[in-house]
Amino acid sequence: MVIKRNIFLYLAILIPVAMIIITALAVGFYQQKRLQPKFNFVYMLVDSDQLGCQQAIEQKLFKEQVTPAGRYPAANTKRCDMVKLYLFNTRTRTSTFITLDQAQQFTFLNKLNRYKSPDGFTLESFCRTDMPLGFWNEMRLENHGVCLRQGKYREKLDLKPSREEAAYFIFIGWIDNRRPLNE
Question: Where do the TM regions start and end (predicted)?
C-alpha cells in the first residue's frame, strides 16, 4: 500500500537520476570517439618569414602547381631551405621530421582537392571541438590547433611546435600508405 501511494514520489526521484546517467554516458561516448583515417599526411611548420615557401616546396613535390600564384608573398629561397617537413602517422598519432628528399619519395593523393583524404577526412586550421549542445559550440573555438574532421566529428591533433620552432601549420598533402615508408 505504501508503494502505491508513493509511486509518484519514486518516479519524481528516479526520472531525473536516469536522465543524468543517460546524459553522462552519451557525453562520455561522444568524447571518446576516435577518428581513424587510413592515410597519413605531410605538413610543414613555418615562421612568418617563411609563409611564401609553400609554393616553392609544392613545386619541388608536385609536378603541377597546386597553390595559386600570388596567394602568398614571394619566398626567400634561403629561408625556404630551412622549412621543416613532418610526416604525421594517423595510426600512432605521432609526427616524424622528414627531409625534402624523403617527402619526394611519397605518392601524394588528391592533388586537386588535397585537403580531403580519399576516405573523407579533412584538416581544419582552427579547431572547434563540438559538444552535444549546439549553442555551446561557438564558445569552444580554439585559435591554435589543428583538427581532424569527418562529418560532424572533430578531433584535435597534437601538432604544436615547441616555443623555439615555427608557429604556422601548412598542410602539404595526404600520402599513399601502400608504398613503404622510408623510416
Answer: 7-30
Number of H helices, E strands in the chain: 5, 9
Q: 43 and 62 in one domain?
A: yes
Can you give the pLDDT of all 183 residues of the chain as single tens digits?
556 678 888 888 999 999 999 988 877 666 556 788 889 999 988 877 777 788 888 888 876 655 555 555 555 566 777 788 999 998 888 889 999 889 888 888 766 677 888 888 988 876 655 454 444 444 444 445 788 888 877 888 877 655 555 567 888 888 887 654 444
Asked if 141 and 129 count as a contact pair (C-beta separation under 8 A), the reply is no
Nearest to 50 by CA among 167, 149, 137, 176: 167
